Amino acid sequence: MLRVYRYVLPEVREQLNYWRSIADRIPDPELQKQAIASMTSKQFHCQGGAVYAVANLPMRHVLVPLIVALQTISDYLDNLCDRSTSMDPDDFRMLHQAMLDAVDPAEPLHDYYAYRIEKDDGDYLNGLVKTCQASIRMLPSYPLVAKHVSHLVGLYCDLQVYKHIRHELREEALQTWWSKHELQYPTISWNEFAAATGSTLGMFMLFLAASDAELKPDTVTDIHAAYFPYICGLHILLDYLIDQEEDKLGGDLNFCSYYNDLDQTVDRIALIVMEARERAERLAHPAFHRMIIEGLLALYLSDPKVKEQKQVKQISRELMKGSPLTRLFFFINSVWIRKTS
Fold first, then answer.
1. Secondary structure letter of residue 107 according to DSSP
2. Residues 59-97: pLDDT tens digits?
3. Which pTM does this prediction carry?
4. In terms of C-beta density within 10 A (0-12 exposed, 13-18 middle, 19 or more buried), how is residue 136 classed?
């Protein structure tokens, strides 16, 4: 946490301030509004993701800009789709081509706004993509992780298309998509798979791995298997858990709403926590990955939204029962970071 406070949070703030200065000059008012809103309301996504830079401080000058830029693309596009002037799946697919391009340094830029009315962002999205590509070129072992990163980004893009189409079509589209993958993941349900695809943590961990010049192929395979679907699934299920009331009011799809009741919600999330911990133990430096898991629980369950939702508060209490000291430590830190950000 000393490293986080001393190095990571100030550098994340610096990066976000830079991108905010670019966003302030976006000519199109709708694109400007969504770019600024994504940074204002979701800056903790960048703060949390950049924790991966703590594990290789000498490479933080590469990892922090990369993580902040990719997460900012993700949050910006999510806003454009969530609060969209469009319901066109081709539009959502083309917007998210930016994420696929961002993780492939050889890929040229595309016309990401080809299917929407709003187009002039003053090169904001192009700038974010180019920053990711430039950072990736400085990762010595990126060729070893490139296929796995692209796989996770591809799943993420699929999710964003299917969950944002017309309300009457999205569940069927998600179920059809799940039918192509369910044999690979027999221990989870369709909503848990979909949640896992919405996480960027697996990508960030692979970036960290690629910053090691001595990286081995087997290590990459182990990381991918540990993060997807359990650590990634835990991340997004907790996010959906605290957003249930907000999503209900906004008419947004929420994967926690597919559990039958409070007991099933607690049981399934607790099981995913257990599986995430077990897989973390198989990785090099397991203490780091345990920190990520306990930090996720602390970060989301300490969110002010929890207190405002009676059922979510009950679930939070159940999940926090018998919490290890690590989680309690991060719980206190999460509250502090929110107050000082």
1. P
2. 999 999 999 999 999 999 999 998 767 789 999 999 999
3. 0.92
4. buried
